[in-house]
Amino acid sequence: MISDIALELKKLHELSGADYSRQVERIALSGVFHPLENEQDIYTPGVLKNDDFPNQLVAARKAVELGYKVYILPTPRKTRSRTPDFILEKKNTFRAYDLKTIYGKSSVGQDLIDSIGQCNRILLNMITEYNTRSLAFDIKKYFETSKNATEVLIFKGKKRISVNRMMANDGAFLHRFMKIYER
What we know:
By secondary structure, the chain is α/β, with parallel strands linked by helices. It has seven helices and eight strands.
């Protein structure tokens, strides 16, 4: 059992590769998370009092619809550490994500850049229609800018789109992404 989740989240910044993945799983399975009342497969470490909770809950519900278990992480105030918002689990694979809820027509690029150093996986919850070409360019630029970036996961309606570094560096990325995103 973890006694200080903030400290365990802070450790993520010191780890990489398999050690990072083990720490994410360790946090999710630590015993500090409990089912969120009236929700299925959404867990929290207690009462969360932050301005992002409504957006986190909307994205968590979408994730559950897409087959994930969701561990909503607290925002540690004591450590002043930038930490992920979620741990998503599917088929015993645990991954930490920074959530960006997209309302505007041109905010993705800045949101992705703001996530650098917080987490190597980003979840874009698309609440608005967004120019597909601009989105693809922003994702590509994010991977070029952040050497540690691993994945951009996009929730668009009931659709889940995962883009990794290798895909974004492919010469046909723009065409392929536009086809997938607009389907």
